[in-house]
C-alpha cells in the first residue's frame, strides 16, 4: 500500500516550515553575528554591577566588625554596673 501525499497537505506542511523558519531566523542571525556594541555595553554594565555588589558586601562586613567592638564595650559596661 503506497501512501500518496495530497498537494494541499504538502503545501500546508511547507507553509508551516516557512513559519517556523521565520520565527527562528532572528535567533539564528543573532547567534551567527557575534558581539555587537550593545552586547559590549551590557557586559560592561554587568561588570560594574558585580563590582558595586562586591564593594557593598565588603563595606557591610567592615561595618559589622567595627560594631562588634562597640557591642563588646557596651556589654562589659552593662555587666560592670550589675556587679
Question: Which structural traits does this protein have?
Answer:
mainly alpha
What's the layout of helices and strands?
Layout: H1 7-33, H2 37-82
Tell me the distance between the termini: 104 Å
User: How many helices does DSSP assign?
Assistant: 2
Strand percentage: under 5%
Please summarize the sheet with the most strands: none
Structure classification: mainly alpha
Rg over C-alpha atoms, rounded to the nearest angstrom:
33 Å
Q: Given the C-alpha coordinates, what overall shape results?
A: elongated
How many extended strands? 0
User: How much helical structure, as a percent, in the residues?
Assistant: over 70%
- Write down the secondary-structure element order: HH
Give me the oligomer status: single chain
Taking pLDDT < 50 over at least 5 consecutive residues as the criterion, the unreliable ranges are none
Average pLDDT works out at: 87
Amino acid at each position: 500500500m503506497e501512501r500518496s501525499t495530497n498537494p494541499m497537505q504538502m503545501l500546508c506542511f511547507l507553509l508551516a516550515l516557512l513559519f517556523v523558519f521565520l520565527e527562528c531566523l532572528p535567533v539564528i542571525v543573532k547567534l551567527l553575528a557575534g558581539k555587537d556594541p550593545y552586547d559590549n555595553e551590557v557586559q560592561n554594565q554587568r561588570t560594574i554591577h558585580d563590582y558595586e555588589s562586591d564593594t557593598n558586601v565588603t563595606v557591610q562586613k567592615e561595618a559589622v566588625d567595627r560594631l562588634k567592638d562597640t557591642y563588646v564595650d557596651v556589654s562589659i559596661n552593662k555587666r560592670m554596673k550589675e556587679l
